[in-house]
Amino acid sequence: MGKDKHLKYKEKHNRSQKINKKMFSVPDIVKGVRALAQSMIETEGLELIHVEFAREPIGWVLRCYIDRHDGSVSIDDCADISRLLSDILDIALEPWLIDIQKNNTQEIPLPEMFLPSYHLEVSSPGDRRPISRKSDFFRFQGNNISVKVYAAINGQKRFKGMLSQANDSEVIIETEKRSLAIPYDNIRIARLES
């Protein structure tokens, strides 16, 4: 009898986890954090460059890259934003998340089991600056970049080359072998290369 109850609980628990994972994915969390953090960071005279939420050896890491228009972000800026963002996220993500999937600002409950504990890191973009906004791709045309894509292109998911062109729907990268068009929605992460 005890085994049956345990199996029923386990089946119910696994089923609810699958439902929650379908409702909220890592990209949804990234979009939600970006939506929550963007205006707060701009109010401080900074810009939000990129948001990452990834599983690493230390656990889940929520990493936000910030900068100033003149590129002079300081350690104090990072520490201040980290404190402010931590407070906002504690309120917003436990147990609420903006419903990005429906493109509205209605808040919906977020089951606690979905959002694992995470480490928050706020830093400057550095030499290998992440590029995630269309405006950044336009800005850094002519620079060398590395790109990881979601769906493989010709059996490959990683590319390095010169960002030769950016338009409203895709970027063109000149690799050693060929010119490659990558749609924005297939770009997982792009970074400047030295």
Architecture overview:
Keywords: Cytoplasm, Ribosome biogenesis. One of its GO terms (biological process) is translation. Its main location: cytoplasm. It is found in: Cytoplasm. Required for maturation of 30S ribosomal subunits. By secondary structure, this protein is an alpha+beta fold. It has two domains: 2-126, RimP-like superfamily, N-terminal (GMP Synthetase, Chain A, domain 3, 2-Layer Sandwich); 131-192, SH3 type barrels. The chain has helices spanning 2-23, 26-43, 75-93, 134-139; strands at 47-56, 59-67, 96-98, 107-109, 118-123, 130-131, 144-153, 156-166, 170-174, 179-183, 187-192. The strands form three sheets. A six-stranded antiparallel sheet has the order 6-11-7-8-9-10. It has a three-stranded mixed sheet with strand order 1-2-5. It has a two-stranded antiparallel ribbon with strand order 3-4. The longest helix has 22 residues, at 2-23. The chain is globular, with a radius of gyration of 19 Å.
